[in-house]
Design goal:
Elements: E1 4-6, E2 11-14, E3 23-31, E4 34-42, E5 48-57, E6 62-66, E7 70-71, E8 77-78, E9 84-88, E10 102-108, H1 115-130, E11 139-145, H2 153-162, E12 167-170, H3 173-182, E13 188-193, E14 212-216, H4 219-233, E15 239-244, H5 251-264, E16 268-273, H6 280-289, E17 294-297, H7 301-305, H8 307-316, E18 321-323, H9 326-330, E19 335-339, H10 341-356, E20 372-377, H11 378-383, H12 390-395, E21 398-400
Parallel strand pairs: 10-11, 10-12, 12-13, 13-14, 15-16, 15-17, 17-18, 18-19, 20-21
Antiparallel strand pairs: 1-3, 2-3, 3-4, 4-5, 6-9, 7-8, 19-20
Helix pairs in contact: 1-10, 2-3, 4-5
């Protein structure tokens, strides 16, 4: 009879869509060649309710996507789609090493229940695992998500500080800024934020100082390139709509870069702001009224969560777009040019490793993206009657068709 090994709860998310604001805990149980995902629901009164999730076969190292259904107390029944990427391997190959168990705090904007959130944070966890950090053995991960509601970030950052995490990992400018205000001593690793120097997060790329380091993208270099590529696709473009979220701490810096690049290309700019999920219909209607030839969509956590709706509206109004994040193009947006988020999240793991081994974040130079990708959704182009220049198709790293 096979033995059963159970990890400690590896990922927690407060709220995560439950009406009572409860915390959900994902628990992994391995039985020989099976991995089972158990979703433990903790209601506001502190009681736990367990329900078995799917048991999936694996062989060696494999990615496992599991779904779990949870029945909450009383009359409330919640379907929790826990799309959690678990990097599984035989227990014998990853025996617990004696020593300290490190606690990593993640201050995110997209929950793990979202497939894209699971994908990018799965890349980060894979990077840690390749460096010898295994959840439930020498590592605990505390994942807190604003779910696109940035006003929640200060509370979530304070909670990570209370949990005494060893490192905070944050994916965006506003998350890093909030984490830095919450603690000037806990090391903070940027997983591909915007212009860290321009936002005042670090003193310089070479010597960041303070408690922040990681990966930073210089928007004044990439934004002009993004608009140049968009103009190649829409050569007669004269009116450009810029869709952004002013509650995002990086909004002002990004919008300034967009204005500068638009002036250089002789474009008339229409600024369209969205702060809530129900603002998108009016936003695209406004673009149509102003006869926008194309739209430039910022990289934003709310936009990731609403990616399907944004792509649907862009197709409905037949507005070609350049998107700040790959996830929106996978959902049906036209094109994206920018650093690979997956690569950036994996590289963030190396910063965490150095810090856990004693390096000071202020002494670790901030790195910039090295892997950029141009992805074109040819299916979307055909749907809106747009012809992509063959020369651009040849340059594309991926074509979705």
């Amino acid at each position: 009879m096979g033995t059963t090994a159970e990890t400690t709860p590896s990922v927690t998310e407060p709220g995560s869509g439950y009406a009572d604001g409860s915390r959900c805990v994902y628990r992994v149980v391995q039985r020989d060649t099976q991995v089972c995902l158990l979703l433990v629901g903790q209601t506001s009164d502190g009681h736990h309710h367990n329900a078995p999730g799917g048991c999936l076969q694996f062989s060696g190292r494999s990615w496992i996507v599991a779904r779990a259904r949870m029945a909450m107390r009383g009359t409330l029944t919640v379907l929790a789609t826990a799309t959690l990427l678990l990097l599984a391997a035989p227990l014998a190959a990853e025996a617990q090493q004696p020593g300290r168990v490190f606690r990593i705090g993640i201050l995110s904007n997209v929950p793990l229940s979202d497939p894209e959130g699971a994908r990018v944070w799965g890349a980060f966890i894979q990077g840690l695992r390749e460096l010898g950090y295994v959840e439930g053995r020498n590592l605990t991960i505390e994942h807190l998500s604003s779910e696109g509601h940035y006003e929640r970030l200060p509370e979530l950052a304070a909670e990570l500080v209370r949990r005494k995490v060893d490192v905070i990992v944050a994916p965006a400018t506003q998350n890093v800024a909030v984490a830095k205000r919450a603690s000037q001593t806990i090391p903070i690793v940027m997983a591909g934020s915007g212009d860290a120097v321009g936002a005042g997060l670090v003193a310089s790329l070479a010597r960041p100082g303070g408690n922040v380091t990681g990966l930073s993208m210089l928007g004044d270099q990439i934004v002009p390139k993004q608009l140049e590529l968009l103009k190649q696709v829409v050569p007669k473009m004269s009116r450009l709509a810029a869709l952004g979220n002013p509650t995002n701490a990086g909004y002002a810096l990004w919008m300034g870069q967009v204005k500068s690049a638009a002036r250089t290309l002789g474009l008339r700019l229409q600024i369209v702001d969205v702060t809530r999920s129900d603002d998108f219909d009016n936003a695209f209607a406004a673009m149509t009224r102003e006869h926008a030839d194309a739209v430039f969509v910022a990289g934003d956590g709310l936009f990731i969560l609403q990616r399907a709706r944004i792509a649907e509206l862009a197709a409905k109004h037949r507005i070609p777009g350049m998107y700040g994040l790959r996830e929106l193009v996978d959902a049906g947006g036209l094109m994206v040019y920018g650093p690979s988020m997956k690569d950036g999240f994996q590289r963030a793991a190396t910063f965490v490793d150095k810090i856990l081994k004693g390096a000071k974040p202020g002494d670790l130079p901030v790195e910039q993206p090295t892997k950029f990708e141009l992805v074109i959704n040819l299916r979307t182009a055909k749907a809106i009657g747009l012809t992509i220049p063959p020369s651009l198709l040849q340059r594309a790293d991926q074509i979705i068709d």
